[in-house]
Amino acid sequence: xxxxxxxxxxxxxxxxxxxxxxxxxxxxxxxxxxxxxxxxxxxxxxxxxxxxxxxxxxxxxxxxxxxxxxxxxxx
Length: 75
Hints:
Elements: H1 2-30, E1 53-57, E2 64-68
Antiparallel strand pairs: 1-2
């Protein structure tokens, strides 16, 4: 009788642990990881170009991010 109780409690503890691990892994997969792309826009003479719209597109998902260069041509 005692072995059945210990077995059930062990099974329950393993099931709860597995559920917690599954949820943690699933939630980690849902976080959005973003990187950084930086640079400077210049014209052919090497002068910086402010106010240029820059768009980066992730090819696999077609997700895009757009920004505009600042007064020093940085994005």
